[in-house]
Amino acid sequence: MTLTESTMVPLGTACPDFTLPGADGQLWSRDDFHCPALLVVVMCNHCPYVQSVDDRLNALAKAFAGRCAVVGLNSNDAVAFPEDSFKAMRARAKAKGYVFPYLWDEEQNVARTLGAVCTPDFFLFDQHRRLAYRGRLDDNWKDAAHVGRQDLREAIEGVLAGDDPLETQHPSMGCSIKWRARSASK
Description:
Largest sheet: 5 strands, mixed
CATH superfamily: Glutaredoxin
Number of domains: 1
CATH architecture: 3-Layer(aba) Sandwich
Radius of gyration: 15 Å
Order of helices and strands: EEEHEHEHEEEHE
């Protein structure tokens, strides 16, 4: 699934406040991250797009440690997709050696507020926690060896330098988020 202009939240939108449990056993909130930039990645365990890029994401988190905080956010319906359960998140984070918190958005509120539609979906916020970039990681989700353009890295470097957002932001693509059915009373 890809994004269209009509489904994207506008640049400058504030990062939603959150307090969510992490696969590391801690509760994390937006204000726990004090770096000049904050990258929120809506992701999950079972999506082949995420599986293809999660090592690159982990390397990016290492490269920008102390300058750009990275947060993984799983919002998938774990009843319909048990491989995306909190227990499975813990196992995946440990097996992959994630150097960033991997949070469980069980109620799906943060992903909905962000306007997330796919996994992975990347949201980069500046020092004021305003959306500066929403787009793809790079130009080849399938094969890291054939990446020609690292869009997200360029966006992070720009945010850290105080530059205006990238003029061209290519939407991320991936598996659709597995939304839970909402009851009529909500």
